[in-house]
Write a structure and sequence with these properties.
This protein is 74% helix and 0% strand. It is mainly alpha-helical and 295 residues long. It has two domains: 50 residues, no CATH class; 233 residues, Orthogonal Bundle (MetI-like fold), CATH 1.10.3720.10. Helix 4 packs across helix 13 and helix 11 runs antiparallel to helix 15. The relative contact order is 0.13.
Length: 295
Amino acid sequence: MNNQIKHPKGDRILLQINNILLAIIVLLITVPLLYVFLSSLLEPNALIRKGFNLSGSDWSLEGYQRILTDGTIVKGFLNSIIYSAGFTIVTVTVSILAGYTLSVDGLVGKKAFMVFFLITMFFGGGLIPTYFVIRDLGMLNTIWAIIIPGAVNVWFIILARTYFKAIPNELKEAAKIDGASDFRIFVSIILPLCKPIIFVLALYAFIGQWNAYFDAMIYLDDRDLYPLQLVLRSILIQNEVQPGMVADIQARNELMRIAEMIRYSSIVIASLPLLIMYPFFQKYFEKGVMVGSLK
């Protein structure tokens, strides 16, 4: 029995066009990634002299060796893990609690709270007042300067609120009849049902913080506290290479060689956590997109 769906001619043409466009988009995404990854495995002199090539004689792991033995990039990587994990935990916790509260029927002043939150999406105090607040709170040069300022994300709260509103009220009413408190209802009934939105918010928050560097550039002076993205910014944009990376090699051409080698290897290492996380979070990511579209 042939179970294939027979589409009208117009739909078949549209599907073919969509397939072609998707193939082009995939190529536009994967080709640069493959180029950077393969370039990180090439000996820099060969890359500069010959350009990109797949000759096995030009392959080298020296870039990765230097990165893994250099304290600056390793420390930046660990700092980014700490900042991203801490930011994710705080942001998701705040978003889930606020979203659930705003989804409860009969909450006094719910509309006023929503208006207040929405205003903050369009209007802010600006960089200088925010800096003064961070300074006066004594958070400069601390992890809290990275985590706290962005902990309340209105868009995350709206996503969580929309998800909670889709949960049938009958579940909560039945629990109340059995004598469960609001806290017990939230912990025992609501939280087990909201794994998809928790994973979605965690993915959004982790990716956003992992790629961020501006707050660290403003609030952190100690290089030992720099996240990986700020270290990479120095390497990729300002062409700064730490003395420890070049050891006793001080010649300018050798410095350029080391910098070129470290650039590609650093990009690959910085992308690894996101590339590893996304396949496991993909199904939740799709559900999160649907929650946003329903809103």
